[in-house]
Amino acid sequence: MTTRDLRRPILVSTYAAALLVLSACDQGGGDSARLDRIEHRLDALEQRKGAGAGPSAAASPAPPFPAPSGPAPAVGAPAASGGDVSAYAPGAVAIVHAAPPNARQIEEVPADSVGGFVYTGGPISLHDLSAQGVRYTGLTGVELQGWLKTTEAGRYELGDDLHGFPGETILGANCVLEAWLEDRVIGSQQGVLPVADSSGGEQRLSLVTGANLQPGLYKLRLWTVCSSAAPRAARITVDLLLKSPSDLNLRGFRSDELLHQR
């Protein structure tokens, strides 16, 4: 039952009482001035009742759910301003994993690792990391964890420059570059490094992804791996590359652009 339905009996009763008054005044020969006043009051009462039953008195619908107070967090907001880097050391931590034997598994970072080192730049030999203290024979993948220091606003590109060197005959290697900033995936790129054997020259594959960033420190994670049907015969190196908004080309990381917490 609506508010208008509840008011209807009250309005009817008021009109009935008013009619009785008018009838009594007419029968008793009351003066016309008194009758005019009563009619005037009835008119005013009717106007007030009519206004109360209008749209303004109707029950208002429930308010909608409040809109979000601001935009959803974006990669463009760094975790730290980058002004004080005293708690950080140069380079990012490179966690080494055995390369998966199946190309369908290259996007999944393995739970087990076989070694690690601090990466400050330069090529990484995915088939031989003994110079970095990693005691593992076979093809590996590198999971880079650290902080990317940016000094200007704009589009940044992260890339892999993969090289397949002549050696024993191998099948083409399936490779992947996956990148996270602030624990969010910004890109996943895959490609095939062609066959490299003793009769051919060096083969190359480039994988690139990027994001729009602001100056500051971004939590960075990169996963680079290649899967080969002959993992012990494959000879593959990778250069990890960066392109800032002011750079014309992809280049190697500078020593102060990759950091890790002390």
Sum up the structure in keywords.
eight-stranded antiparallel β-sheet, five-stranded antiparallel β-sheet, alpha+beta
SSE diagram, text form:
Blueprint: H1 3-27, H2 32-52, E1 88-90, E2 92-98, E3 115-119, E4 123-125, E5 140-150, E6 154-164, E7 173-181, E8 184-193, E9 203-213, E10 216-227, E11 236-243, E12 251-252, E13 258-261
Antiparallel strand pairs: 1-13, 2-3, 2-5, 4-11, 5-10, 5-13, 6-9, 6-11, 7-8, 7-10, 11-12
Helix pairs in contact: 1-2
Protein described:
- By secondary structure, the protein is α+β, with helices and mostly antiparallel strands.
- Helix content is 18%, strand content 37%.
- It is built from 2 helices and 13 strands, in the order H-H-E-E-E-E-E-E-E-E-E-E-E-E-E.
- It has helices spanning 3-27, 32-52, and strands at residues 88-90, 92-98, 115-119, 123-125, 140-150, 154-164, 173-181, 184-193, 203-213, 216-227, 236-243, 251-252, 258-261.
- The strands form 2 sheets. Strands 1, 2, 3, 5, 7, 8, 10 and 13 form an 8-stranded antiparallel β-sheet that branches. Strands 4, 6, 9, 11 and 12 form a 5-stranded antiparallel β-sheet that branches.
- A hairpin with a 2-residue loop joins strand 7 and strand 8.
- Helix 1 (3-27) runs antiparallel to helix 2.
- The longest helix has 25 residues, at 3-27.
- The chain starts with a helix and ends with a strand.
